[in-house]
Design goal:
With 397 residues, the protein is an all-alpha fold. The chain is 68% helix and 1% strand.
Length: 397
């Protein structure tokens, strides 16, 4: 049917407009009802709307206003650097798309947009900028204190996004490794005005954080290892205390019962998993606690320890339920139902208490991390540009 053809209800254009208006009104009514039921959604909606309007204003300023080079550097650099500090990649992207020279903009300390992204641990801004061609210059620049980008990555930045000293130390190491992967090896041993290399800056800045992380790891491992040791004691004793007794030949009386097989298998699984858990926590307690250990080694041991501890608790409760069922099933056959329900309580409580920590640790260790799409080898002419710039500024290595 042609758009201008008529129908008994009017033209097709009119019908389309009416349905579009009805859909818009219905959508608006649903949003209003949802905002009344959940006021927090309205707050999120208003924040998102403000964010979109801000980005649109920045786009108009960049595209619709003609600025001189002096005005760009004097008036727009502050806005772009603030966006990098606050972690707003959409605003930063508008400046990058509009002005090629924005990589040269810096504040009074000589910090560029890339420096701020690293200093304030803004991952989205960092990933946005590092893919741009002019990053070879940013890697070789230095601030007024003689720090290159790797020196800045070595500074300690307090963060509210990561809970726990060990996780924060891991995140700091991930940032340092990410920036180290981008810079030329020449800059990894370069010194600043205080004659410190980037690694020396990192070690000095994170000395107290390493101690706090070590204390937290040892306290967590000690508490969990006590629980795992108790489980080993219980399930090991249960393996030689056969439910239902044994006959004159030493064969369990309920050997061919399904409940007995469940008991035997779950008891063995509880024993083996709890022993594994104790070994993992023992590895944490005896670790040398070097900086690099917080990157993968210690978190991996804690993850394995918590998972095996949870599995041992669950297996122990299954073995307990099977034992009770063997002892009481001849009188109360339905006793397994309340036993199963009650047995789920400690397992569920442990999962609720430890799952947030386990999830944070797993996502921080095996998640995407600081995404790097290129290394210094893939940045063409990085060596020549950086080395020439360093010689120009009289760097001493």
């Amino acid at each position: 049917m042609h758009p201008k053809e008529s129908t008994p209800f009017g033209s097709t254009q009119q019908i389309t407009a009416i349905f579009g208006l009805m859909f818009h009104k219905l959508n608006r009514m649903l949003w209003n009802a949802l905002m009344r039921l959940a006021p927090s959604i309205k707050v999120i909606h208003d924040q998102k709307l403000t964010h979109m309007r801000t980005v649109e204003i920045v786009r108009i300023i960049c595209e619709g206003v003609v600025w001189t080079n002096f005005q760009k550097s004097a008036q727009l650099s502050g806005a772009m650097l603030s966006a990098a500090i606050l972690g707003i990649p959409e605003v930063v992207n508008e400046f990058i798309m509009a002005y090629d020279s924005c990589s040269n903009w810096s504040n009074q300390d000589g910090h560029t947009i890339f420096d701020h992204a690293v200093l304030h641990r803004r991952e989205k801004v960092f990933n946005l900028i590092q893919g741009v061609n002019f990053t070879t210059f940013l890697f070789s620049s230095r601030d007024k204190s003689g720090n290159n980008i790797l020196h800045l990555a070595g500074r300690l930045v307090p963060s509210s996004e990561v809970a726990g000293a060990a996780l924060q130390m891991q995140r700091e190491l991930q940032w340092f490794k990410a920036v180290e992967n981008l810079v030329h090896p020449f800059f990894r041993e370069a010194t600043n005005d205080l004659k410190n290399t980037p690694r020396e800056v990192f070690t000095k800045e994170h000395k107290e954080l390493v101690k706090e992380g070590e204390k937290w790891m040892k306290e967590t491992a000690s508490s969990c290892s006590v629980v795992a040791a108790l489980i080993i004691t219980v399930v090991f004793a249960a393996a030689f205390t056969v439910p239902g007794g044994i006959d004159g030949r030493g064969v369990p009386n309920f050997l061919y019962e399904q409940s007995f097989m469940i008991f035997a298998i779950s008891d063995m699984l509880a024993l083996f998993s709890s022993i594994t858990s104790v070994l993992m926590f023992l590895g944490i307690l005896t670790s040398r606690y070097a900086e690099e250990d917080f990157l993968v080694s210690l978190p991996r041991k804690l993850i394995i320890g918590l998972i095996t501890l949870f599995f041992s608790i669950a297996s122990m409760m299954v073995a307990f339920g099977a034992t009770v069922h063997i002892s009481l099933s001849h009188k109360w056959n339905l006793v397994i139902i309340p036993i199963a329900l009650v047995g789920c309580v400690p397992v569920t409580l442990f999962a609720l208490l430890q799952f947030p920590l386990l999830l944070d640790m797993y996502s921080s260790t095996y998640g995407p991390g600081i995404i790097i799409e290129s290394s210094w080898r893939e940045l063409t002419s990085c060596h020549m540009v950086a080395k020439d710039n360093y010689r120009k500024h009289s760097y001493k290595c």
